[in-house]
TrEMBL record:
Organism expressing this protein natively: Tistrella mobilis (strain KA081020-065)
Assigned EC number: 6.1.1.21
Reaction(s) this enzyme catalyzes, per UniProt: tRNA(His) + L-histidine + ATP = L-histidyl-tRNA(His) + AMP + diphosphate + H(+)
Family: Belongs to the class-II aminoacyl-tRNA synthetase family.
Coiled-coil blocks: none
Aminoacyl-transfer RNA synthetases class-II family profile domain segment(s): 1-324
The name this protein goes by in its record: Histidine--tRNA ligase
Amino acid sequence: MAKLQPVRGTHDILPDEMPRYRNVFDAVAHVGATYGYGEIATPIFEFTEVFKRTLGDTSDVVTKEMYTFADRGGEGLTLRPEGTAGVARAVISGGLLQQVPLKYFYRGPMFRYERPQKGRMRQFHQIGVELLGVPEPSGDIEVIALGADILDRLGVLGDTMLEINTIGDMESRNAYRTALVAYLEGHIDRLSDDSRERLHRNPLRVLDSKDADDREVVANAPRFDDYLTPHAADFFAAVLAGLDRLGIPYRRNVYLVRGLDYYCHTTFEFVTDRLGAQGTVLAGGRYDGLIGQMGGAETPGVGWAAGVERLSLLAEPPAATIRPVALVPLGPAAEAEAMVLAHRLRKAGVVVDLGYGGNLKKRMKRADRVGAAQAVIFGDDELARGAAQLKSLDDGAQTEVALADLVDRLAARG
């Protein structure tokens, strides 16, 4: 039989690695709560139409990366490639749009068929936030600040830079799109195949192309700022002023765009140079047209998502977990008593490791392997005296403690 392996682009998160993931999950929960955001969890698969409507029939995600299948009833289903669409569907189908503003955070697995590389998997995990029903620039400022605070809690804010841009309102976008297409058509022979394909379908995406020839062409393209309406310019200025007041540094990236029509105004990313080519750790923007495009009432929205795998690589390792106490019973009578003692200690909040057999040497070796701080050693002689030997596994100091006092003594150490 062939050796079993996880599917390419997936991996097992074993107990030694899980604290790094939990650290990120806990950060969004803690900081999100301080901002008044409640947790939402949507199914990991939706009707395929949910993502086609939101990501566009011709987007790379829909055409190349989605895991789509027909269930036994013939329904087209898709494993979620991102979180926003499911949240938007949930608030529409749940009739929640009458309760705006809605403030949510989420955490969980996503799925995309793409080439696995450092920090990018086919089953990956995201955290994210969505703020619905707030049309003012204050919404953009708040979600960016929330993201910055999460990165700060994880100890990675200093290794990132906030890049920010505006793609204006619909009037701005339409005017700029016309000018951009006209310019790019004049240089079509220098564009990559991908950019030629996007030229009329999604021309804004040409601006963030990584192709060297495309970048040379784009360097002299018309500037979005020259096509902003007064409202769009004032909106962006208000966002930047708010970030200045909060002391959140940023730099302008005029090539930072979102290609789909429901995006507008602010786009932003926190980027780092510590992960090689995969430099984006948190990305988002304003999407005032999304809910309406999905069939709900026109509702402004702004949010972001961040990859947990990348954040777990960047973040400071979480503080060590509480070290356990190892119970080391010697003999059948002590084994029976150890089960009772372990139960009492655990109910008192003490982390206990109880081996399931072996002599003193084997049990002490296990205690060392699990990182126990102390060992409680007792056999027939100790039981006859109602006592146990309490041994420090750091310095070897050993004292006799009455079994009746053991729970209080160990619980008091925290």
